[in-house]
Amino acid sequence: MSRVGKKPIPIPSKTKVSYKDGMISVEGEKGKLTRTIHDAVNLDVQDNEIHVTMEKDTREIRAIQGLTRSLVSNMVTGVSAGFERILEINGIGYRAEVSGNQIVLNLGYSHPINFEIPKGISAEVDRNNTIKLSGIDKEALGQMAASIRRLRPPEPYKGKGIKYAQEKIQRKAGKTGAK
After folding, report:
1. pLDDT tens digits for 118-132?
2. What CATH number does the domain located at 4-80 have?
3. Distance between CA atoms of 48 and 13, rounded to whole angstroms?
4. Which residues pair with 134 in a beta bridge?
5. Where are the domains of the chain?
């Protein structure tokens, strides 16, 4: 049984947290995030810490407590330090470039793919075909990275495609030569 929900969330300096009527608002150096909190849990903001407490102690509510604690912790981390995801593009002729609020991807299809960058997320493309995504909302950032990766997932034979920087591709042996 996990005890994630019982751990207090430290509030860094220069970060303001307000909780009222089931809505939490976290404001920091990088921006502001708000979220609705489930009715089964309450938040206690005091002494530069946030505590997530339960109304009743059941299995489902303990799960909601842990989820709420993780979501609020990600909000606090996002507005104070931010999050970052790095994608690598591997393949001959595969490339990406940022054009306005779009990423233009050439991934071996007959046409370039224009991917819209959501509000609150910034993207950079390096010379060695790495896409660096950054933002304060971890959920939106992960969804965007997954959507870009889904356009051309890495294949197991040559490793061509889009992959996360920390991801290891399980490679397969190709066809063997005729005997």
Report:
1. 999 999 999 888 999
2. 3.90.930.12
3. 8
4. 84, 122
5. 4-80, 83-164
- Residue 143's identity, in one-letter code, is Q
- Contact assessment for residue 138 and residue 124, using Cβ atoms and an 8 Å cutoff: no
Spatial neighbors of 55 by CB under 8 A, at least 6 apart, are: 39, 40, 41, 42, 61
Inter-residue contact 83 to 145 (CB < 8 Å): no
Token pair for 12? 């860094």
CB 22 within 8 A of CB 39: yes
Kindly state the average pLDDT of the residues 84-93.
94
Would you mind telling me the total number of residues written for the chain in this entry? Answer: 179
Distance (Å, whole) CA 118 – CA 101: 8
18: helix, strand or coil = strand
> For residues 138 and 34, is the Cβ–Cβ distance under 8 A?
no
Q: How confident is the model at residue 178 (pLDDT cuts 50, 70, 90)?
A: low
83-164: CATH topology is Outer Surface Protein A; domain 3 (3.90.930)
Global pTM reads 0.87
According to the model, what pLDDT value does residue 176 have? 76
Amino acid type, 131: I
CB 12, CB 50: distance < 8 Å: no
